[in-house]
Amino acid sequence: MLVANLQAELEIEVWECLDAVTDPELDEPITDMGFVERIEVTDARKVRVDFRLPTYWCSPNFAFLMAFGIRQEVMALPWVVEANVHLNDHCFGDKVNEGVNSGREYHDVFAEYCDGARLDEVVQTFLAKAFDRRQETVVLGLQALGLCPAEIVSMTLGQLRMVRFDGEEELRQTPRYIELLLDQGLAKDSADLAFPTWDGQPIQAMALSEHLARLRSTRINMEFNGALCRGLAKTRYKEVEIGPDGPTLVDFIAGRVPPREDVGARG
Amino acid sequence: MFKTPQGKEVFVLDGHTHFWDGSPENQANVHGKQFIDCFYAYHTNLSPPEELWEKAKFDKQSEDDIYRDLFVDGPNDMAIIQTTVLKDFYKNGFGCLERSNEMAKRHPERFIVNGSFDPRDGEQALEYIHYMKETYDISGVKMYTAEWNGDSKGWALNDPAAYKCFELCDKLGIKNIHVHKGPTIIPLSKDAFSVDDVDYAATDFQNLNWIVEHCGLPRLDDFCWIATQETNVYAGLAVAMPFIHSRPRYFGEVMAELLWWIGEDKILFGSDYAIWTPKWLVEKFWDYQIPEDISAERGGVQLTDEIKEKILGLNAAKLYNIDVEAKKSQLAGSPVQIAAE
Predict the structure, then answer these.
(1) What InterPro entries would the database entry show (chain A) (predicted)?
(2) Nearest CA to CA, how far is A211 from chain B (Å)?
(3) Displacement of CA B243 from its chain's centroid (Å)
(4) Do B187 and A117 touch (CB under 8 A)?
(5) Is A235 within 8 Å of chain B by CB?
(6) pTM exceeding the 0.80 threshold for the entire prediction
(7) ipTM
(8) B242 with B209: CB under 8 angstroms?
(9) How far apart are CA A7 and CA B286, in angstroms?
(10) Which of A41, A137, A143, B270 could pair with B15 in a Cys bridge, judged by C-beta atoms 3.0 to 4.6 Å apart?
């Protein structure tokens, strides 16, 4: 049995590392979406993560990706030697759990269920959508700061890094946008253009508004799904389980405890 | 009949309703329980608080319930009942053609009951299409591509077996194919909600009308692209409608996209009863305007009264060959009655 304080600290460390796992369809961290249900550090080196999705019918292939993503992030913590991931209440849950905890490679496990095919193409499609959505937020933020199309399309990564945004959404998305830009090799150093298309092409100043219209339809779709998923997750699991000593920090992080102002507003 | 605050009478043809039995007695397994529970989560998540139902009321509706909710308390003139069998999940099926037709007998002038088939049944599916046409003279079908069937956990509209069925539909004059994209589980290597197959099927069957429910959600962007290319693809608003309450700006963005891409003649109202009831949806829809800034980004599209009338009934009436004026006088002579309680 771990000392309670240490255990709580380790659990928080796990919660924080799971911010890096996103729902591929929504491009939102699974922790923000309220998908992570429970984290347990059983002894100093073993972690169990329980998660659940908004409905029993959510896409199983994305459930696989999230389960493996959780495992990968948890195993990357230096003190962890064993991670168990459990997807609960899902139509494909048993198979996902068996696969993710088998210790085998993701592609091997996944291939069993689709005649050896890979999910790469779907993953790329959704990564492109995530890129578009993040880019739209940043570009609209720059427009709001008064930059004209010519200034935006010619902006370099180095210049973008210097911009000071005010809006909450721009502040959140700009680092995520830059991260994806670098990961995908769409920009390598600070002299490269900050706003190429997903195909790596520059955008012409004249074509910016048309480009933004396309980004907008991607975003509308993703936000619609996000709204639906958040709502369904909340309705599906309404219960608030707080221990006899009241909520702990973990309860607040997990969204099990509404912020004070919300409680007041509900009256 | 919906009466506007100005006293104008608007014809309402609800394009997407169900007469289901999701009660525990009818559930064959955990999947049946999870299916109705998922619908109930949609209901509780997106309804205004005063429209919430208890679970038992939601699980199964009586004949009186559906008449009251659609035609007495509700503004519908007519409703299309969609068949969703889910025979792997429910002992007697979830929303059955027979049970719906039995119910519709009391007021046949108000209902269009659509059939359904599963192309994976092969020859039997073809025989069943003949049976539905001969017995119930169906003019449309509801396709649920995520339905399980033994080992299969989903299918696509452009599967060869499906094409055989659509050829027969075309031949028999079953013109309206309502498509519901749910999560197609297998093959896992594909996007479970992909609407690409609609593109193929609509191109290859130009005589059929393809009404994509939930306007392709959660793939609205892909759907708009396809529906713009294909003249015979329509958007059903079921599930998009209730956002008018919970997220009115998003509803405006969705409507702006649909009006911009596919136009006012190809959008169909659907309440998705009994997930939601048409009364509050139609009232809110009639009051609704797309916010100025959203409209401006899409060439100033707006929901005018004329466009709302098309969406609420006139567009669907065209697809189902209903003469709206004749129907109005027929209905005026036969008000809906339900048994005294």
Answers:
(1) FSCA_dom_sf, MIP18-like
(2) 13
(3) 16
(4) yes
(5) yes
(6) yes
(7) 0.76
(8) no
(9) 56
(10) B270
